[in-house]
Amino acid sequence: MDCAKYLELLSDYCDGTLDDETRALVQMHLGECLPCDGILHDLDTIVRTAVILRSETNSITYPDEQIIWQRLSLSKQIIH
């Protein structure tokens, strides 16, 4: 079993964007591999929680992603 290959596909699997053949291969692997199935469960929980948090009217202020990526880029340049 090549778990790394299937782990790369889990996000697309959750999104439903895999072709039928690849989706069937991932499903077969998940049925045989408890660790990968657990990771899928965790990923699904994270995605559902994020959707709920973003859809609710709340006082959470979300950071500007573009600013975060700029800061990371700058910090990477400083380190090198």
Q: How would you explain this protein's 3D organization?
A:
This protein has 80 residues and is mainly α. It has a single domain (3-79), classed as Arc Repressor Mutant, subunit A. Helices cover 76% and strands 0% of the residues. The protein has five helices and no strands. It has helices spanning 3-7, 10-15, 20-32, 34-55, 65-79. Helix 3 packs across helix 4. The termini are far apart. The mean pLDDT is 83.
Concise synopsis of the structure shown:
This protein is mainly alpha-helical and 80 residues long. The chain is 76% helix and 0% strand. The longest helix is centred in the middle third of the chain and has 22 residues, at 34-55.
State the helix count: 5
Structural class: mainly alpha
Cα Rg: 17 Å
Ends apart, CA distance between termini? 37 Å
Shape verdict: extended
* CATH class categorisation: Mainly Alpha
Average pLDDT across residues? 83
Strand content: under 5%
Helix and strand run: HHHHH
Number of domains: 1
- Helical content stands at over 70%
Low-confidence parts: none
Any guess at the CATH architecture? Answer: Orthogonal Bundle
CATH overall fold name: Arc Repressor Mutant, subunit A
